[in-house]
Amino acid sequence: MQRHVNITIPWLLEDGKVVTVVVPSVEETSITDLQAGVDALARRIKKSNLREVLSRTASRDTLRRLASGQSAGFTRLLSALLGLSRLDFLRGEERRKYYAVDPSKRLMSEDISAGTVVVSNIGSIQSGSTGKFALLDVIAPQVFAVGISGVRESPTVVTGDSGDKTIAIRSTLPFCLCFDHRAFEFGEPLPFIGRLNKFFADPTLLLPLLGDTPRPDLSTSTA
């Protein structure tokens, strides 16, 4: 069982294609360090041949499935050899030059296949969208997906200090959460939702997470 939270980020490339890359072991990472990890990924993507990385990753996964006797492995093997999903590896001098690059400076198979949680910031590229929900896929080995929309102004019920309720315009940020029931039950994400509620109610709680200062107590038993 995976013991770490590895965030998978859908990365929009300059040619319009998307590749998913992984920021590993973020469960004890500050926001500042998380951003540094994303910046490092950006530099490594620029030095990577994504066609080669994807082909190597797919071939390893196919061999793993074949070794474990999974029928899907034979289907993928036929597709890789004869179908539209045929693998395309670097060859000759192009391959030699590519693999001469320090592995720490380019993407490896684990950088696109070891994720446990998908975080899709669709709002950053669809800021004008008026939708308030999204449909997310949870693709193994990921077990949880978070879709973040764009900030928008919406009519909201506001409760004053005296308990009176009024309707006011507030900035809202729609989220879509999707998880694999085969991995855990609905009760297990509730503490996470409770933490989100605390952050939304008091954004200053995020400040200690920016660095090495003591973290706030966000324990909760309810959503």
Briefly summarize what is shown.
By secondary structure, this protein is α/β, with parallel strands linked by helices. The chain folds into 2 domains: 7-187, Chloramphenicol Acetyltransferase; 188-223, no CATH class.
Summary keywords:
7 strands; 6 helices; Chloramphenicol Acetyltransferase; alpha/beta; two-stranded antiparallel ribbon; 223 residues; 31% helix; five-stranded mixed sheet
Molecular structure report:
With 223 residues, the protein is of the alpha/beta class. It folds into two domains: 7-187, Chloramphenicol Acetyltransferase; 188-223, no CATH class. It is 31% helix and 19% strand. It contains six helices and seven strands, in the order ββαααααβββββα. The strands form two sheets. A five-stranded mixed beta sheet has the order 2-1-3-4-7. A two-stranded antiparallel ribbon has the order 5-6. A hairpin with a 5-residue loop joins β5 (152-159) and β6 (165-172). Residues 218-223 have low confidence and may be disordered.
Question: Topology of this protein?
Answer:
Elements: E1 7-12, E2 18-23, H1 31-46, H2 50-67, H3 71-82, H4 92-99, H5 110-113, E3 117-120, E4 144-148, E5 152-159, E6 165-172, E7 175-179, H6 190-201
Helix pairs in contact: 2-3
The profile of the biggest β sheet is: 5 strands, mixed
Head-to-tail CA distance between termini: 26 Å
Poorly predicted runs: 218-223
Highest CATH level, the class of the largest domain: Alpha Beta
Radius of gyration, in Å, reads: 21 Å
